[in-house]
Structures are given as C-alpha cells and as structure tokens.
Design a protein that fits this description.
This protein is an alpha/beta fold. Helix content is 44%, strand content 10%.
Length: 324
C-alpha cells in the first residue's frame, strides 16, 4: 500500500529530526561516565553482599579517639562545658575521696534524668578519668544520622550502645576500649526519667564490668531534671549534687542479675545520702529502709507530688507547688 508506506516514511523523518528532551540529553552523558562516578556493573548470577549501615550501632567512632579529636574534646570540656555547667547547674560534688584507691579504668553507672547528666558528669569526674572516658550513648538516638553521630562522638566521646538489648557488638566495643585503658560512663536506666523518679536498671553496666573485670563506680546525679527535664526545651538554672559511691566489684559467685541489683541499690543509697546525709542514709540502708529509686507505685499526679515533697528547700527553684 503506497499510502501507508509514504506515511511511515514521513513519521520516520520527523522522529529523526526531532529534538531530544532536556532530561534525555542530561541523562546520556551521565550514563556514559565510567566507574567510580557510576555504580559498577555486576555480572548476572553474582549476589551482592548486603550493604552495611553507617548509623546506629555500626557508626564508626575510632576517629573520635585519635589525638587531634581528643585534644579538641579536652579543650571543649575545660573551656566551655565546665564553665557552663558551673553557672547553670551550680554542682556540689560529694564522695570523690571514695575514688582515692581506684586505679585504672572503671565503669561509672549513673541515674539519668536529663540531657545535662552527661556534660555535668564529664565536668565533675576527677582528672585521671575526665579526659580518658567514653560515654555509652543510645545508638538509635545519638547515632541515628551521620551528623548527630559525628557530633556526639567528637564532643562527648560517645560510642553507640544498643539500649534495647545487650548486644554483642556494643559489648565487644566497650570491652576493647576498657582493655585499651578507657573508662566508660553508662546510664543503666536506658533513657531519661519521664516523671523525675528513677527507672529499673538494665544489666548493661553489670555485664560489661563483669566481662572486663573492672569495678563499677555508682553515681547519683540530683537536680538536672529541674533544669532540663524530659519534654522541656528551655533550661532553668538550679542547684545539683553529684555523689560518687565506693567502687563495686562483681563477686566470683555473683551473676550479672545479682550484680546489677546491687548497683541499683547502691545508687538508691547515694540518692538518699544526697537528700539527707551520710549517717542517715547508712542507717536506713542497714535497716533495709532505703527509699526505692523508682518511687511509689501509684497514679502519676501522686508520684509528682511525692517527688516534690521530698526535695530539700533550695530556694525558689524547689518551692513546693501543686503538681502540673
């Protein structure tokens, strides 16, 4: 059919002379670029290994313990963090003499009420450990992105810890660093307090200390929840107290669960000491009457009321008010 063949010839001429769209013209040179500008080709039948994530527990932190990074962190802590904490938190440090016989690395296990707990504890640690310590930070929170992970590793020396379980990767990393002479700060509660009372301790600190054969130093931090508690974005200056306890070693016949219970009981005793004094705290501990860190098991408003009633009067910032 001559008409049909002529029509096809005209269509072919128009397509040959048509301009290539802009997207197509930009795509063609990119497709022609060689490796490494484009992904390499893979032969058929070859299975690629699964790509490894660079966030979460897999975030690399070795670079943050290099000499330049350590010097940067020392300068930040001594020239910025400590002055800010002294003005904002007005810390009172107790029990530092209990660390006089401690040599070498240790695991510092503290309660957790605020994001200020980490910088406050870093600025309060005695000199032998202050600049040779890493912070066990929640991998899903502090290492969720590359930017937050890099800042956490550089500024506070954080390492990713899986707080949902005792993972082998987190434990092996902590053990390797302790073997190299680093100390470790862990918050066994796994997260900040939602209402000012403590939460049950998880076994991470006890497990790492037992496997590494190093002591655990119980620490209680009081007052940071009033400054910047969970859910607050604007800090309010107030007084704080950091109380260090005597180092604890895991017994030969003691399992991780029992050791973790002993650590939590010691932190509760330190909390009682910070609210009263050493003698009354020791007496209540001897009689088995130390107040529990988790507070009364009752309705939420009553828990807030009881917490506020137990606080010592430190000025207008701790004035007793009806719970919000």
């Amino acid at each position: 059919m001559p008409g049909l063949s002529g029509y096809r010839a005209k269509v072919s001429q128009r397509l040959a002379g048509a301009e290539v769209p802009l997207v197509g013209r930009l795509r063609r040179p990119l497709q022609a670029l060689p490796f490494p500008f484009t992904a390499p080709t893979v032969p058929q039948g070859v299975e690629l290994p699964p790509s490894r994530s660079s966030t979460g527990t897999d975030f690399p932190t070795d670079w943050a313990r290099s000499e330049p990074a350590r010097m940067t962190r020392v300068a930040l802590i001594d020239t910025m963090v400590r002055p800010v904490m002294n003005g904002l938190a007005q810390p009172t440090k107790r029990g530092q003499d209990r660390l006089s016989e401690l040599t070498g690395p240790a695991v510092f296990a503290a309660n957790h009420h605020s994001h200020l707990d980490t910088p406050l504890l870093l600025s309060a640690l005695p000199t032998p450990w202050r600049h040779n310590v890493v912070i066990g930070a929640a991998a899903d929170y502090f290492f969720g992105t590359r930017i937050t992970g890099a800042l956490s590793a550089l500024v506070i020396g954080a390492i990713p810890i899986d707080r949902s379980k005792v993972s082998r990767a987190s434990t092996d990393l902590a053990r390797d660093l302790i073997d190299e002479g680093w100390s470790l700060v862990v918050f066994p509660e796994g997260g900040r307090s939602p209402d000012g009372w403590g939460q049950p301790f998880r076994g991470g600190a006890a497990f790492i200390a037992q496997r590494s054969n190093v002591p655990v130093v119980p620490v209680h931090i009081e007052g940071t929840g009033r400054i910047l508690g969970k859910g607050n974005s604007v800090p309010r200056p107030s007084r704080t107290t950091i109380t260090f306890g005597e180092p604890l070693l895991c017994g030969e016949d003691e399992d991780v669960r029992a050791f973790n219970t002993r650590i939590e009981a010691r932190v509760a005793e330190l909390a009682d000491e910070s609210m009263t004094d050493w003698w009354q705290a020791k007496k209540r501990s001897h009689d088995g009457e130390t107040p529990d860190l988790t507070g009364p098991q009752t309705v939420s408003w009553r828990r807030v009321w009881e917490l506020d009633a137990d606080r010592p009067r430190l000025g207008r910032n701790s004035r007793k008010t009806w719970p919000r």
